[in-house]
Amino acid sequence: MSKKNNTAGILAGLLAGAAAGVILGMLYAPEEGKETRKKIKEKANDIKDQAKNKYGEVSEKVKDQYSNISSTFKETANNVAHTVKDGYDKYKDQIVSKTADVVKNVESELNDLKH
């Protein structure tokens, strides 16, 4: 999550710096105010579009990474569940078998005591 925040911060800083540079350059250019305002508006729209595009790219990357991590987590959880179930089944069968042996031994001992 820290990389995401750093990337977003760097992106925001670069866009803000670019916007400030463009605006300052236009304000000091020897043109009429109306023409300067028009250029500032156009550049602001360009920067806004660039920011939307970058946001879309970063958003898609985050969604892809989330999907990959989610799939990996689900797969790992399923593997763990199967391993636990297999272990349970194995030991359950062993316990049932041992219990049956103990019951037979007890029955045998009781029969021996009766005779």
TrEMBL record:
Coiled coil: none annotated. Keywords: Membrane, Transmembrane, Transmembrane helix. The chain crosses the membrane at residues 6-29. It comes from the Bacteria. InterPro entries: Desiccation-related_membrane, RRF_sf, YtxH. It holds the Pfam family YtxH. The keyword Membrane applies. This is YtxH domain-containing protein. It comes from Chryseobacterium salviniae. The lineage of its organism: Bacteria, Pseudomonadati, Bacteroidota, Flavobacteriia, Flavobacteriales.
